[in-house]
Amino acid sequence: MRAQEITFLKLVQGDKQFQVPLYQRTYSWGREQLQRLWDDVSELVDQQLAGAAPAPHFLGSVVLAPGQLQAGGVQRWLVVDGQQRLTTLMLAFTALRDHFRETGQDRFADRVHKQVLANEFHEGLDHYRLLPTQADRDAYIACLGATPRAGGADNVGAAYRFFRGALAEEPEGRAEGWAETVETVLKDLLSIVEITAEKGDNVYRIFESINNTGVGLSQSDLLRNYVFMLLPQRGERVYQELWLPMQQQLGPKNLELLVWLDLVVRGNNKAKQSEIYREQQKRLEPLAGDEEALQREIALLAERGGRLLRILEPHRESSPALRTALERLASWGGQIHYPLALHLLDLVDAGRATADEVAEALGHVESYLVRRMICQVPSNNLNRILMDAPKELEQDRSPADAVRRYLSGRRRKWPTDEELHEAVRTKPFYWSGRPHQRFHVLRRLEESHRSSEPVDFARADLTVEHVLPQRPPQAWYDLLAEETEDGQTPQELHDLLVHTLGNLTLSGENSRLSNHPFRRKQEILDSSSLRMNQEIAAAERWGRAEILDRADRLARSAAEVWPGPVGSVRSADEEWPGWAELRAALVAMPSGTWTTYGDVAELIGSHPVPVGTHLSGRPGVIGAYRVLTSDGRVSASFRWPEGRGSGTPQELLEREGVPFDAAGRAHRSRRLTAADLASLLGKDLPQDNPDDPLPDAENAAAAKRFEAQLKENQPEAADGVLAALRFWEQQGGYRTYGRHAETSCFPVLDAGTPTRPHTLWPFGLYPVSGTVEVVFQYLKDRSPFDDTALRRELLERLNAIDGIELAEAKLELRPSFPLQVFAAHSEELCAVLEWFVHTAALDLARRP
Length: 848
Hints:
Helices cover 52% and strands 9% of the residues. By secondary structure, it is an alpha/beta fold. The two termini are 29 Å apart.
């Protein structure tokens, strides 16, 4: 066996092929891993363009075993370990090649294809430098061959689409040659350890030795060992008096966080948490031999540890104003504010700022985060902006003024009052941020206008709820019909309003609110202790005018609660963030799908007309041909960019697999809704989730509500649904129910062990709207259905039943079929459920 560190280009060049054995698992990297890799690549690109000489980024190892030398001269290597990295990088290069082609740089595209992706003078399967396992092969070859099926709904297609989107949105103010620099980084600055087995080596033992090496030392463990090696005289006392108390107070995870934050606050904002030992070692190395200086460094770290505890546990802060500011940021969640908060606490404890000044500064940080979330500003570079702050703040200003001016910088995208107002009126707030952040916004708005005794939000069991229901009965549509614009349907108006902030409130009465007419909701809301609910109850009706009027009031309140940046007008050359989100959504769409101008408008908080105008006025938007009219037709105003595009959008969509009828309308099963687009962009859409079950008493009450709603709204299907659920329980499953007004039901299966809980459910049943959602979105992350082939088999088994037509392009989403199918086909659906349980049981039996 031999090992060498090598660049990716050197690894793959030559007449060779890397073949993933058939027994290997399928490609499984998701958005989180892809984003982490892209962040690392982007950082190296920035350093390269700035004239620095960045060190190569280590990706890990690849274990290869020699295969048979082909007659034509292609050397085959079996990929024993590292197929995820290899496949990901090949897909990144494929996307880069296609980006070059889209931008008219065919010479660069050819270079990427010949140097990295293909064995130029070989045909058939030998043409491909990487040959994935059988289950992934067709999807990979579709991407590499740039066929209409490239970028499908499987993990391979999703990774290709991720990189296409990342490359399409080049950073603002990019230097000349940005894409070519990406190519250089991918080829020459990603380092891999190539471990090559010789004939006779047991490659599987090598694999086990790499992947089963026990629990490794953490970065803070390595730093501790290094520091105390340099303290032969003072080590024991320093450990007992400084290091051990700090370690005990913080715990291992937070101690490692502290060591990283210490670097960032000192100005090393490039430090990765995976490399903090090396960076701290480099910083402390000049102090070797000076035990007193090293002791001072550990004392300073311990002091910072105490400040970090005040950030993690705000009740430790003695100043009421500063404690409140820290509590609000803790409620917002995440660690993004930690570097700046730690720096500001340093100033307080050093006597260089007052607690009130720092509380005001942290209020600006909260405002910055909240306004960006409400306006749905992409989070690109948000970590970097707040990590850079400690070293970028103006030193001759108060902390509050310095923080506000820094965050108001031109490319830091702190929304103005005007942008905030528009977003509150139009953006789907219900899809913004995380659930606790949406709750935080509504809670702060409620608290800002309370003069009576405050509500105990921690004990009130409040959730974010819709006034205009998500799935309303006809009476609500009749009301909306009075306010529609020319050519607009009540459903389209509903979709533009339902998830906006003006239609949302906090309530602990979600099951009582249900989908009732507004008059019934008024009675419930009027008895609420929340002022916002009493104001809603005072309205005469609840339609477009009332929702927008409330949005205007909330926007004014939000502008007072969260003050805006210095300056109040967006620069004329700054693009509205919604258009970037539009482009990201279109490039994220799997091949074989389409959407409407209305769906895109709902997603970005716009209107179908400006969406159409933007697409027609900006040539070259990837996937623009996928946007059709509300009835699935190609818009009469659609035009290909000059010199690009062949055939009609309908012809291209048909090649991707979208059926059209004789009238030129695309099949509805291939349509992606605004919620589907939001899911593809990684938005945290609120969904009932059996992983968070109701308490037993509430679950029993929900069971009764579900059956009542089912019999009332779906009388023909009710017996078939209940028979199928009883059959599920006979197979060892059970039922859980949702928390929202429409009481959804989930047939759940425990498919794990006592030490590793693991639940599976094939679909959710919605009795009021009459739909069954097949939860591929969840199954794709859960064994054994993280295997695309098994999700596809589930889809095919369901599609064999009359009345069900699920699109394969939705294998990562939540496609639905009518609940009425249970009326005539309950037994066939039971057969699918039986196969589902059997498949899960086989997987459990194979697990160690």
